[in-house]
Each structure stands twice: as C-alpha cells, then as structure tokens.
Task: structure prediction
Amino acid sequence: MTQYAYVLKPGGKLYHITDVEELHEWMYKHCEEHKLFEKVEDANDDPCVQVMVNETEEGKKVSRENRSKWWAVWRRIEDPVERRIREITESEQVIA
Result:
C-alpha cells in the first residue's frame, strides 16, 4: 500500500475490484489499515466504478457467469509530514 501511496498524490483514488471475495477482504483490510488511505463512501456514482463494474471484459464475464463482484474505492490523504514540508516550502517562496 505504501507504494500506491507514493505514486498517488493526495486526493488521488485507488480502485479495486475482484470476483474473489477473499482477495477483496484482503485488499480492503490493507487499505483500511493504511494511514494514507480513506474509504470513499459515495463511490456508487463514480463513472470509473461504473466502467470497472459493467464495461470491462472481466466485469462482463463475471456478470455473464452470474458471479459476484466486490469493489471499493480509496482516496489518498495527505501525510502530516508532507503537509508540513509543503507549508515550509510555500512560506519560503513568499519570503524570497
């Protein structure tokens, strides 16, 4: 999860979807426990969710086979250390 946090800027979203419940539970647990991600509660209307659930080849296959899909969306939050570095940098630019 730390690698995902590294490449996503604060506010970026991490999407996951699977037809394997145990994998979903594992991904959900690790995202939930990571300090730099928060669950996006209102993701049902997110167009990316609709695409990954209904429009991908794998999503269509799972639907044809009447299997379940498990998904979640997480938002990258700002690390307090990152925020402090940004504040210092911005204040130094104002002084200069």
